[in-house]
Structures are given as C-alpha cells and as structure tokens.
Amino acid sequence: MSTQATVEMKGICKEFPSTLANDQVDFTAYAGEIHALLGENGAGKSTLMNILTGVLEQDKGEIWIRKKRVFMKSPKDALSLGIGMIYQHFKLVKPFTVAENIVLGMENVRVLNKRALEAQVRELSQEYKIDLNPFSFIWQLSIGEQQRVEILKVLYRRADILILDEPTAVLTPEEVKELFQTLRSMAKKGGTIIFITHKMHEVMEFADRITVLRDGRLIGTMKREETSEQELARLMVGREISTGRRNRENTVKSQEQLRVKDLTVLNDKRVKAVDGLSFQLFAGEILGVAGVSGNGQKELMEALAGLRPRAGGQIFMGGQDISRASPRERMDQGMAFIPEDRYGFALVPSMTVMENASLKCYRDSRFNRGGVLDYRGLEQQAREFIKEFEIKVGGPKSLVQSMSGGNAQKLILARETAREPSVILASYPVRGLDIKATESIHQILVKEKARGAGVLLISEDLDEIFQLSDRVAVMYEGKLMGILPIGQVTLDQIGMAMAGAARLGGEDDG
Amino acid sequence: MMDKERRGRGSLRLIRRMDIPGWLRLAVPAASIAGGFLFSAIFLLGAGESPLEVYGVMLQGAFGSSYGLGETVVKMIPLMLVSVGVSFAFKMQIWNAGGEGQLHIGAAAATFIILNLKGYDRKTTLTAAFLAAFFCAGLYGLIPAVMKVKWNVNELITCLMLNYVGTLLISWLIQGPWKDPAGFAFPRTAKFPRAGEMPAFFGTRIHAGVVMGLLAALLLWFILTRTRWGFEIQLIGANPKVAEYAGIPVKRYILAVMFVSAGIAGIAGMSEVCGITHRLQANFAAQVGPSGMTIAYLAQCHPLGAVLVSFLFGALLVGGNSIQKLGLPVSTVQMIQGSILFFVAAGTMFMNYQIQWKGGSRE
Amino acid sequence: MIQVMILATLTAAVAQGTPLLLTALGEIMTQRSGVLNLGLEGMMLMGAASSFMVLVNTNSLFLAVVAGAVCSGLLALVHGFLSITCRVHQIICGLALNMFAGGLSGYLGKDYNGIPAPKVLPSFRIPLLADIPYVGEIFFYQNGLVYLSYGLVIGLTYLIFHTQIGLKLRACGENPAAAYSMGISVNRTRYIYVVMGGMLAGIGGSFLILSTVPSWVENMTGGRGWIALAIVTCAMWKPAAAMAAAYVFGGVEALGYQLQAVSVNVSPVLLKMLPYLATILVLAAVSIGNQDKGAAGPEAMTTPFIPEDN
Lengths: 510, 363, 310
Prior knowledge:
The complex is a heterotrimer of chains A (510), B (363) and C (310). Chain A is 32% helix and 26% strand. Chain A is α/β, with parallel strands linked by helices and 510 residues long. Chain A starts with a strand and ends in a 12-residue tail after the last helix. Chain B is mainly alpha-helical and 363 residues long. Chain B has a single domain (78-333), classed as ABC transporter involved in vitamin B12 uptake, BtuC, CATH 1.10.3470. Helix content of chain B is 69%, strand content 3%. In chain B, strands 1-2 form a two-stranded antiparallel sheet. The model of chain B is unreliable at 1-9 (pLDDT under 50). Chain C is mostly helical and 310 residues long. Chain C has 13 helices and two strands. The longest helix of chain C has 31 residues, at 2-32. Classes of the chains: A alpha/beta (510), B mainly alpha (363), C mainly alpha (310). Chains B and C meet through helix 7, helix 12 and helix 14 of B and helix 4, helix 10, helix 12 and helix 13 of C.
C-alpha cells in the first residue's frame, strides 16, 4: 500500500438548522486502500462525503486533494478532481440507456453516436470486468446491475477517488463479494476507495483502514488488523450493544391469522412481481421474509393491504376470504400495515401529529357523532400515543415534518397497534433509523407478537431477520424460496436463497 | 474554484419552515394584494396613466356611494358562489378550472325550467330552477372528473375546453332555439315571468343569491373543518396515496367533490339570471370563472375566506367598470387580478420558507 | 370541386395548425426540462398583441415576430423565476400568468382594437418541392414561419434525442438529482428552456395575428394555448408527433370554416365548438391508449429542484 495521501480533510464543520452534522472532523485516505467510514445513521458520514464530493459546502475546515487545497462548489468540481460518488439511491435516469447514463454531462461527447458509445463502454467494462449491455434501459436492470452502471459512470470520468454510500445495502451476499473484488482491483491500480457503512462484519472483511464517526465527531481511525468487531461496535455506538436475539418469547404456533394462496400481483409496469405465492401466518409469530428488495416485496404487501389489485389467487384472514375486500374492510377486520415509504404513504408530513394519529380511527363511534368529529378526543388520543410510546415531539398540534425518522416511525406503530390488530404487515420497519430507535421498534413488534398478533416482517437486513423472526422465508423473483423455523436455518442457506441459487427447503410455499 | 472567487459572493438560501406562524397566513395575502396593485401600477405608468388617479376612481366607484357599495355586493355574489365551489375541489388538489362553463350550464338549466314551468308560484319555480342548475352543472363537472378517474386525463385541460363548449352552447341557444321571438335581433331569451325572478333587497340590485352564497360557504366550512368527510377531503388533498392507505375511496371522493363543486358554480349562474338579468343573454358573467379561481387560491381554499376575498374582487370589478370613463378597458382589472395572483403565489414562498442571506466572505 | 375543397382544407390545416405546433414545441422543451408552464394562452396573447403593435408602428413583419418572441420570453422568465427560484406551485403560477398576460394584452392593445393588419406574412413557393403534386400545394406553398416550424421539428428531434444537449435537457426533467450529480446545472438549464418555450409561444401568437386572424381583438387566441398544451400530452413530448397532432387540430378548425363556406346547415356557433370537443376526445383516446404504459411524461415535471437537498 502506498502512503501517498490522496484525500485530506481537516477540521470539517457543518451545521444544519437542527443539528451539528460534522464537528471538527479530520479524515485522511491513501492511494491504493479501501477505507471504511463507519458510523450509525446520523453520525455524519454522508454529510462528510457530500462535502468531499461538492454536494454540500463545509462551514469550516479545509480539503486537500493530492496535496493541493481545493474549493468545490458542485459535484462537477469534484469530478474534475477525480472524485466520484456512488450514492445509495442511485442517480440514474431510468428511461435512459446504460450508455446514455454514462455519457450524461460529458462535454466531449456532443453527439450520441451509437457505435462509438458502444465501443467505449465495452472497452471500459472489459478493463474492469464489469459485464453490461450498453443499450439496456436502466429500468430493465437489476439493482446490482444498476450499481455497476454507477461504477462505470465514475470510471468513465477517470475518477480515481471513489466514494460509495452504503453500497451493500441492496445486494445479495454473492453480489457483495463481486463488488469488493471489483473495488479491490481498482485499488490495486492506485485508486482510493472509500465506503460508508454501518455493518461491522463488512468492514472487517473488506477494509484496509477504518474511520469511525459518532454524533458528528471523529472517534478514531485504525487499521483493520489492529481492531475487532467488538471494539468497532463499541466505538460506533458509545456503549455495548446486544447483537443477540431480541425475540425471546417462545409462543406456540396456534391459530392461523392469514393465509395466502397462489397470489399473483403485477407491478406498475404490468409485469408479474408476485408470482403464485402462498404462505400461512399464525397468531403469536413473527414470519421474517428476507430478500433483496425489488423482488416483489412491495407489491406483495400492497396487495395484502388491498392497495394493489390482485392478478390471481386468494387471501384469507381468520379463515375468511378477503380477496375482494377494500382496504377499509381489511383494516376493520384487524389488519395493520407499516409501509416502507414512511412519508409518502403512511404519514402526511404537512399535517399535525393529531391528524396523522387519527388516520385509522377517526371513523370509530367514539370519535365521531353523525359524521362530526370529536377533535378533543382525537387530541387526547394523540397525547396518549406520545406518552405511551415515548415519542419526542412538541405536542399533538406539531407538524409531523418536524419529527425525526425514529419518532415518526413510533407514531406509525402507535397508530397501527392501537386497535389491537390480528395481522401486522411490517415493511422494512427500521430502515434508516439509529440503533436506539431500532431497538424500541423491535420491542414493539415483539410485544405485539406476544399479545397474539401475527407479524409479517419484510427486511433486507439479515441481522434483523435473525433477531426477530420465529420462522424465516426468503423472497426471490416474486416467489418464496421455502420457509424454515429460525433454529433450522443458517446464514449461508439464506444467502444462497436470496441469490436464487437454492431453495431453503423445509415447508414448501405451496 | 479559486479562493478569490469564493469570497464576497453570497447567496440567498431558502429554509423550509417546520411550522407556519399564524400571523404570516394573514400578512402574506394582505401584502400580496398590495404588491399586485403596485406591480400593475408600473404598467399603468408605462402606458401614461396615473396609477393614483386610476385607483382613486376605482375606489370611488366601488365604495364611494351606496349605489357603488350595493353593486359591489351584486358583483360579489357570483364570485362568491364560484370561488366557494371551486375551492372545495382545490382543497383536494383537483383543479376545477371549469367554473365558467359550469356557471353557464347552471344558468341555462335554470332558464329552461323557468321558461317552461309555467303557472307555478315563485317558491316552486325557483326551487326547481335551483335544483336543475345544481344538478346539470354538477353533471357537467362530472365529465372531467370521470375522465380523470377512469383514464387519468388531466382535469385542468378538459375543464377549460368545457368552458369554451359551455359558453358556445349558451350563445347557440340564445341565437337559435331559445331566442326571444319578440326580441328583434338581440341574442337573448324571453324575459322571465315574475315567478322566476329572485327578490331584491334594500332597494338595490342585491338579491337572494347573497344568502345562497353565504349559506354555501358556511356549509362547506363546517364540512371541511368539523366532519369526517372534511378530514378525508383534506387528507386526499395532502396526499392521495396516504388517503388510500387510510382506507378512503379516493376516486369516489373525486367524483362527489367535483359534482358538488360544479353544482355550486352552477348556482352562481342561476342566481345571475334569476337575480339580475331575468333572462339568459350573452356575456352575463364575464370573467367570473378565472376570478373565482384566483379568489379560491387567495383565500387558501378556505370557504369563509373566499367570501371575504370575493367582496374585495367584487369591488375590483365595480371599480373596473368605473375606470372605463378614463378610457381604460375592463381587461385592466384582469391585469391587476393576474398580478395579485402572481404575488400571492410568490408569497407562498415567504410562508413556506425562511429566507436567509448567506454571506460569501469569510476568514 | 370536392378535390379542390379537400386540398384547400388540408392546406388550411397546416396553416391553422402551425401556431399550435410552434407553441407546443416550446412547451415540449419546457416540460422536458421539468417545468410545467400553463401560461401558453397568455403568452400567445401577449405575443400576438406585441407583434401587432410593432407591425402597425414599424410596418416590419420581422420586427413584429421578434417583438412577439421577446415579450413572451420575458413573461416566461417571470414564470421561471417564480417556479424555479421561488418554488411556487407551478399550476397556480401558470394560471396567474394567463390572467396577467391576458389582461395586459387587452390593456396595451386597447388602442388597436379592430384595426386590420397592414400586411400579413406572405406565402411563397419552395422551388421543386412545391411542384410535387398535392404535397407541394399543402406543405410548400406557405409562409416563412411554417417553414420555420418544419425546421424546428427536425432540429428539435435531433437535438433532444441524439445530442448531449438533449440528454442534459431530458435528464433535468426525468431525474434532476442525477443530472446535478453529473455536473449539470439543473436550474440554469430549466431557465433556458422555459424562456425558449415562452419565445416559441410568442411566435405562435405572432403567427396567429400575422396570418390566421389578422386583426387584434381581446382574447383572440380563443383557447389555442390550451389546445397546444393538450397537444404536448397527446404527442408524448415528441416534436414529430406534436406536428401530426397540431395538423389534426388545425384540420378540425379548418373543416369548421370550410363547412361554413359551403353553407352546411349547422349553426356556425356549433362549428366553433369542434376544436374544443376534438381536444377532449383526443386527450381521452390517448390516455386510454397509454394506460398500460404507466406514468407518462417527464418524471420530475412540476417538482422544483433544490441543490442543497441532493
């Protein structure tokens, strides 16, 4: 490994209206290394990297690239310095082809000459062994392939400082390995690779050096050989954390709450997203569904909640056929839904906590007399939610947009569990939350399960699946790859099933 | 990327407000109206008019006499009905731009009833005309609503096209089949019988339409702020996806709200022909449609606010008529309205964002 | 006889369709950059009014067209400022623009009401092309702005789909965050196309008063701006398809006049409804046809872009 520092950030400070995102952070990365930037959500990792790529401007501090002080006003400036960023949410134009995305913004490509573009893209992808058809449209590609387009995009610009924001969140274990092979070969050619993550095992497996941030401050930088997973975890959170099982209540498989038979659902492009899927969900269990997102999870949950039409199959709740029931009828039968899109689906950020807390119950006879709403009662209820679930917010009349993600999610859970549902559909319930909020959300779900609800938990985080589930299923290309009790399944098995390479075995999903 | 360039350059920065203070909700529209008048003054000056004189004449015309004041209320009536109706749909982010057409259809329906329903007393005749206007206009408003719900056709364009169709339909009726045989060459229907006239008050032209408008505003205000249906409408307006998630049948709401919204606009037509013209004739409600939309937006879709703003716009129309003696066309008023709307729209920025000047120089 | 009539109708369809086409082409650029400008009607009116005033005072057709483009461009700039910089609700802003421009054109044009145009855009034959039977008569015996519109259709199609400039334009409308991350100044791009869109709408208005209806009357556009807006949607934001759609609407309008000319026993008032009804029908048909294709139109249209958030 060379010792030439390519990136030096000194005393970086960045303040947002409500938080100090970076507080005197120093950061150095060298040519030829893979450097992990580790920290919880909200630790300031993304802010620091957004400053390095010119998206944000620091309030204080200096940036030196290859020993020269630089001032960047936009991503363009960063790119011209050879700094390329691969975002967690890909910055790809969906109706464009791979080639069009790659040359977008390149001033030397004035006219889109199909043949020349193809040659250039092919050359590049051969050099780095990244296999892609230049003329596929982005919307036709899998998530893993889209990430490869992002990498090609920065390579095409001859960037040799590459920053990846949570690059593995959306990949199968196999794809993760491939990604780091590519990254390693780039580092060997003298590139500087920085990746943001909060997963300790990835850091220990792939990084050369590690920088830990917490609450916007630098905690330390160390070599991989000189640290351990436990130490990193402690540095990251500031206290010991349990990585063990959170669902310790053993309940017996009993009454069936939900049965899905041969369910088929189409996505927005009218392609089969859920393909003849069947399973049962029992009272007092958490059924964890692992899988890379985009394999039909969203469509499955929406169809179960009645928000997306079925193309075929049946859904039973408590033995009753609800296939044709409206969302409202399903709600009234005891179905609760925690959707993946918190602010676009479950909450209205511009409305008050009280109004958002009332979404599911305003029709109850206790809040409504002949159509006239009892706003005082609704306010009282919101106040109870705030107290019981320890939601941090000004009060029932505060707007939801002023809440943090964790508190917003608690509000959703408070509302959804208030009517003692028999089925809880939970999609990625802790996505983007910090460890503390994650713990409390998990506790709520375990409590609900203990009360007797059946919880269908969709997650791409295998740690979460193992911490919570009683039974585990894997979803791949719209199908379940089998269902197994938690004690009988290994991480490897799940990894293979997520990649579609092998079934889990056990109960058939038919 | 040079250090020098860095310094001395500041930039405006908009920061989203988490909570909008109550005083801003009133201050911004008030300042916007003032801004609109100031902005129009530039164009008046540019064309060699004295803005002070023009505005003075307008003020005098609208408020300077009991006749002017009465006329202001008379002009306010259709504006109030259309804006209250339209704001009901706006609340749901359904762009009912079809007030003009719906008003004409309502007027035509009322005219048809009154001219054909002979020999009944005033109460029966007017009730029948009211119902006919409401339902026919409501059905007319359902056309864009159905097209939106079924095929996702932009309701704004269909509404506007239907405005032209509606007004042309009226001109055809009054030039052709419904033309007053005793009316010489005038394109208009026969005069209504006494039973089809709405009573006027206080020796002015102010008629019962003002009561209908106030009642409609009160009713919608109550529905929107106090009932579960109002809550559902506000939810759909805020985010239709969340509303569906909460189990609300959004499509049914779009149809129902458009029907009511258009129906109320239709009442505006009925009240004009029964209260003012006592016959269907050309240009009986010029500019009411677009003004109604402006008012609805200015009042932030609040039905009671719409009443208040309608009064102001009524004065603007009366004042607009009086500046004709200065040789200015009525479209001057339209220009002023447009610039008010510009400023109100821009004003939302001040409501939603805090504006900070971020200086460039440092170190 | 019938052949002459059909030929006359088709020629008129091109002439009547051109102001719609010019305006729609401008709006295609505006919308593809991610901004919805509903103010087409107002901008056309302002274009027509300013063209007419300049024509009467200078007697120069060229200056008249330039005046139309500049005035509407300025109006579009106001819309750009409000919707791009101030992030104002674009529908409201567009409605305000219509009302303001409609009022302003009536106010400024008050002394020109009813005056006939001193001259109109002359039609001329394109050598060789005009000699093609039928086609030549219909397409190549028109005025200069019609030829300009042909050029624009070809040029814009090439620009939008085959060049880096077009790539940037489309990226700003589809995924501004992606465009920004690739070094494109999204809001500057949007300003440019909003103003260009406004200028074309202004030229559309000029065409109207310099050829179609050569006399100034308040609100003389009669909803053509809204029809142009409908054309953009019907044409799925493609210049060539917009051309076809514009000629269809122009044709409907021309048919109305032709039917009057041969004194068909239908009230002229009802015939005037034809373009509006046609617009509704075509919009519905296109929407039904595209139902399976999911959301149409630039993904980020009407969404302001805030660099700090990305």
